[in-house]
Amino acid sequence: ETGVTQSPTHLIKTRGQQVTLRCSSQSGHNTVSWYQQALGQGPQFIFQYYREEENGRGNFPPRFSGLQFPNYSSELNVNALELDDSALYLCASSSGQNSNEKLFFGSGTQLSVL
Amino acid sequence: DAKTTQPPSMDCAEGRAANLPCNHSTISGNEYVYWYRQIHSQGPQYIIHGLKNNETNEMASLIITEDRKSSTLILPHATLRDTAVYYCIVRVALRWTGTASKLTFGTGTRLQVTL
Questions:
Q1: Distance (Å, rounded) from C-alpha A19 to C-alpha A10?
Q2: CA A9 to CA A112: how far, in whole Å?
Q3: Per-residue pLDDT for B39 more than 80?
Q4: Looking at the complex, does the CB of residue A97 fall below 8 Å from at least one CB of chain B?
Q5: At the N or C end, where does chain B have fewer CB atoms within 10 A?
């Protein structure tokens, strides 16, 4: 157990809809990152939040957005869902953004877009 | 944009050491090498990380070559529960921020531990 919890565990949506995924970081962690993992692939970096500010983003379109709250929990929002958005979405937290800080991952949310 | 190359699969007998190789020939001087593993679509589990020196913890050892262009993860006594996909990752700085960085996953090595 990493102490990082994600909800829901599974979700089914239809194309064009919007979705919100949630993540509670490990106690004491102020940095949260989100990753997308398509079937058979390694996770791909979406963005990172540090103390409520987005401070890094991967190659994902603006319809992928997020928030981090004062308690350092986080949300990932995806608008105008596409079939290719079907994936496992992973949240990871760390106690800082230094490259020497370990990231601890949650179990993920499996999103299916029909 | 993964910066690592790993064999797609490996087998290991239970009780023997599993040695998982990784090439990262384009690694920069301040980029760390991380190893994670993932069991059947669960979240990746942290194993170990290092910059230049060899590292050891309760799970594994990490051997980094002097030129830092490759590394080896060693599981000293593999068990059936070590069957998983193992990712060798270079942690890359995000250019437009001061200290933020990301893990760049490749497709990993699928380790099968057998009786």
A1: 12
A2: 11
A3: yes
A4: yes
A5: C
Q: How close, in Å, is residue A60 to chain B by CA atoms?
A: 14
Beta partners for B69?
none
Nearest CA to CA, how far is B18 from chain A (Å)? 21
Top pLDDT among B96 and A48 is at A48
Instruction: Give the H or E element holding residue B104.
Output: strand B101-104
Q: Which of the four pLDDT bands, split at 50, 70 and 90, describes residue A96?
A: confident
Gap between the Cα atoms of B115 and B112, Å rounded: 10
Place of tokens 């991952």: A105
Q: How far apart are CA A6 and CA B26, in angstroms?
A: 34
Residues in chain B: 115
Q: Which of A58, A97, A106 sits opposite B43 (nearest CB)?
A: A106
pLDDT at B29: 83
Residue A84 carries which DSSP code?
A: G
Nearest alpha carbon to residue A73 among A18, A6, A20, A19: A6
Q: What single string gives the DSSP state of each residue in A42-71?
A: --EEEEEEETTEEEEE-S--TTEEEEE-TT
